[in-house]
Amino acid sequence: LVSHLWYATGGGGLAAVVYGPCRLTAKVGTGTEISIREETSYPFEEKIRFHISTAQTVSFPLYLRIPGWCHGPSIRINGNEEDIHLEDGMAVLDRSWQEGDLVELHLPMRVSLERWVENSVSVERGPLVYALGIGEEWTWVENSDKYGDFSEVRPREPWNYGLLEAAILDPDQGFELIRKAKVSGYYPWTMETAPLALITKGKQIPDWKLYRQMAGPLPHSLPLKHLQDEAPQVIRLIPYGCTTLRITEFPVVR
């Protein structure tokens, strides 16, 4: 895991590429051994903390990746905000490091939208894509062909929602972030344990139905006048990786 999160750079420096809780021991500079403990619940939180331990003061560059989706990142060292100098998407912190130094990287996350087929919309926040949280009904199927028995999952509640145009035009107001307790050691990628959810409103589209046991062709985003009298419903989106049944491209309705 550590080898995927960090790599050594030329000149005896270190680079953090993928953020996740870990501990690294390495030699930097002219061969001084240091330890860095990375503390974070990323991608479910915006802050990553690096605790540095060294037996002696040592100079080396520390590179921190700034994702392309992030606008307005900030870095603090021992509580003091640092100017960010970027090289190929990496923030460079080249200085003398001492025992107990703390680096805090803040990557602000905002809801963003992408347009897809039939002018549908997908919802992202920071590095995560969000999908409709569809209740699941699991059954065991006894099968006599070469594939044998298997588990089957079907939706046990409506899934054919369009998102309100008002939320798409103003995502900061149209989506509310709900955060569970801090992630701490359990597996977060299930419906039940999803640490984050986005709450918004939508309308069911009766014409959008199952076809061959799958979601039928996506309706084009239109005013859909026959839905004007329908009351909007509150719907819950969760990170894509927490879902088994997935609606991630939504028609837009007024």
At a glance:
The chain has 254 residues and is mainly beta. Helices cover 5% and strands 46% of the residues.
Tell me what the structure shows.
- There is one protein chain.
- The protein is mainly beta and 254 residues long.
- It is built from 3 helices and 23 strands.
- The strands form 5 sheets. Strands 12, 13, 14, 17, 18, 19, 22 and 23 form an 8-stranded mixed beta sheet that branches. It has a 6-stranded antiparallel beta sheet with strand order 3-4-5-11-7-8, with no helix packed on it.
- The radius of gyration is 23 Å and the shape is elongated.
- The N and C termini lie far apart (46 Å).
- The model has no long low-confidence stretch (mean pLDDT 91).
Tally of individual helices: 3
Give the mean pLDDT.
91
Class from secondary-structure proportions: mainly beta
Q: In percent, how helical is the residue content?
A: under 10%
Please describe the biggest sheet, giving its number of strands, its sense, and whether it closes into a barrel.
Answer: 8 strands, mixed
- What amount of the residues lies in strands? over 45%
